[in-house]
Q: What sequence folds into this?
């Protein structure tokens, strides 16, 4: 016959059974709240604030970068924390920050995606999904997004037997990327309806020339010049290619291919040929409308166009971070 009496472990307390055994209910609740780390709290806060657009625009995504472990703090700033606090998923909705995030995702996929933590991998896959949704919504950057998803497919295929983490999580990544690729393949370019408003063909050559000067990618200029004779004439102007040469390359790089008799026959220089040779030798400079930066006073990572709350009263000084420099902070 069983002996019935008060709980010998702690009279009057409530106990709960967990995977690790029996635990006191009060202590179990405390552990649950402790496991709700800064990432989860930041995600809940972002979901709550996203319902109010006016308040969301005033939010300044930022994170304090901790360089190393000290006696006061035993935890370094992780890549997954930076993704959440810097709102990388929401950054792709801004056309100014889309190219920066795209370059960042490309570097992560080609470098060591298979060796990242499971949380970082899930964040990257979620960002790719949001980027695809934004591309389909705005009808922009479709070829670049296809190339990025193809890179993700190749990375997941190559790392199938050499990745860190569970096989179930890796297969889930592959399934998610496959669905995203299939969604993007169904995209069809929408033709503009005749609404009576002016189009690019209606603009004079001077306006077209000003628009072409704002394009930093030579492929956009070449493809636009293939549409009609007027655009071809504007895109073939040597002054346009001369400006592209001085914008993307330094003087030392240009001197490698410039003729020695430049001062005598400057008008006869084929700047389009010079640009093509420099592009094959040195590559093209990455251009971002907005980028990440690190504050020189408080070591805070933030978006340059949004800013961050800094404790310093002096003039804010920050150092811009390229996507490569940002990843180097986390020793990837």
A:
């Amino acid at each position: 016959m069983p002996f019935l009496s008060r709980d010998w472990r702690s009279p009057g307390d409530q106990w709960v059974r967990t995977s690790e055994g029996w635990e006191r209910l009060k202590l179990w609740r405390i552990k649950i709240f402790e496991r709700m780390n800064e990432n989860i709290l930041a995600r809940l806060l972002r979901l709550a604030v996203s319902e109010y657009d006016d308040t969301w625009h005033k939010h300044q995504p930022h994170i304090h970068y901790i360089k190393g472990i000290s006696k006061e703090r035993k935890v370094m700033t992780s890549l997954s924390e930076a993704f959440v606090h810097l709102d990388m998923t929401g950054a792709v909705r801004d056309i100014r920050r889309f190219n920066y995030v795209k370059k960042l995702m490309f570097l992560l996929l080609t470098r060591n995606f298979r060796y990242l933590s499971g949380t970082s991998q899930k964040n990257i896959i979620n960002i790719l999904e949001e980027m695809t949704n934004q591309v389909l919504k705005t009808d922009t950057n479709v070829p670049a997004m296809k190339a990025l998803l193809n890179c993700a497919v190749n990375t997941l295929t190559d790392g199938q037997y050499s990745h860190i983490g569970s096989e179930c999580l890796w297969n889930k990544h592959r399934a998610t990327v496959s669905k995203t690729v299939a969604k993007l393949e169904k995209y069809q370019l929408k033709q503009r309806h005749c609404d009576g408003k002016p189009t690019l063909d209606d603009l004079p050559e001077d306006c077209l020339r000003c628009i072409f000067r704002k394009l930093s990618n030579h492929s956009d200029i070449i493809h636009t010049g293939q549409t009609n004779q007027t655009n071809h004439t504007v895109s073939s102007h040597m002054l346009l290619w001369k400006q592209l040469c001085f914008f993307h390359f330094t003087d030392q790089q240009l001197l490698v291919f410039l003729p020695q008799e430049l001062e005598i026959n400057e008008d006869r220089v084929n700047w389009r040929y010079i640009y093509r040779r420099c592009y094959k030798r040195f590559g093209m400079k990455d251009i971002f409308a907005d980028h990440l930066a690190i504050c020189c006073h408080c070591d805070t990572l933030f978006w340059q166009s949004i800013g961050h709350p800094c404790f310093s009263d002096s003039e804010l000084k920050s150092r811009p971070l390229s996507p490569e420099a940002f990843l180097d902070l986390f020793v990837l």
